[in-house]
Automatic annotation (TrEMBL):
Organism: Pseudomonas gregormendelii
UniProt name for this protein: Chemotaxis protein CheW
Primary location: cytoplasm
Keywords: Cytoplasm
InterPro entries in alphabetical order: CheW, CheW-like_dom_sf, CheW-lke_dom
Length: 227
């Protein structure tokens, strides 16, 4: 699945689900007769039902679309990684799994959470997209995930999971960097990843210890959290 496929999935879901919140709700002309009772669309049963249908669809889409390819051409000398931070930990994720980096948006919780990693849903171009906690998926120490005092700008990563796009909030994005394959191979051989979930290895970058994530294992964990 490439980025265009993922965006098509998002727009297809937007059309398949009656997004009344964008027409007559808080993002529309506010003519919905239920608004006076619920104050905001996220408190309405219609909104919650739409979110539940979206999560059910991830399992179905996984079968039709297959998994994100993990193949790498043998003559590639560098690999592009997106560098981002969660708390005090810096991580790197292969850019082939990334659809885009978006500004932070409101995350709307669901009445019946399916997993501890599922934060809720976020509105991406009018479509509801599942929002997951990488802190929970990676098993990070929540006590150590406080944002440092320096001025930072949190972001949301939209990634191409096996069943469709998902959103993950992060504390900071450094950017996309090309890393020498030999550096990555050395990190994989070092064995430092043994104690970390979904991790290829740990390498030094810009004076930081960077945890290089195994995207296939991570995306499989994402799928399990949604089904």
């Amino acid at each position: 699945m490439n980025a265009s496929d993922t965006l098509s999935f998002t727009h297809a879901d937007a059309q398949a689900i009656d997004d009344c919140w964008n027409r007559i709700g808080v993002h529309g002309d506010r003519s919905c007769p239920l608004l006076s009772e619920h104050i905001h669309c996220r408190n309405c049963a219609v909104y919650s039902a739409a979110a539940t249908r979206l999560l059910d669809r991830y399992a179905l889409q996984q079968e039709d679309r297959g998994q994100v390819s993990s193949s790498v051409e043998s003559d590639v000398k560098t690999r592009s990684l997106l560098m981002f931070r969660l708390g005090e930990e810096w991580l790197g994720l292969a850019t082939r799994t990334l659809v885009e980096v978006a500004p932070m948006q409101a995350i709307h919780s669901l009445p019946h959470q399916r997993s501890r990693a599922l934060l809720g849903v976020a509105n991406v171009r009018g479509a509801l997209v599942a929002c997951l906690s990488l802190v929970e998926l990676l098993g990070l120490d929540t006590a150590a995930v406080a944002v440092p005092g320096a001025r930072t700008m949190p972001r949301m990563l939209i990634i191409a999971a096996h069943g469709g796009p998902v959103v993950v909030p992060v504390d900071e994005v450094d950017g996309i960097h090309a890393i020498d394959e030999r550096v990555l191979e050395a990190a994989s051989r070092s064995g430092t990843q043994a104690s970390s979930k979904y991790t290829h290895g740990v390498l030094q970058f810009k004076g930081r210890s960077l945890r290089w994530l195994d995207e296939e294992q991570l995306l499989s964990a994402v799928t399990r959290s949604l089904t």
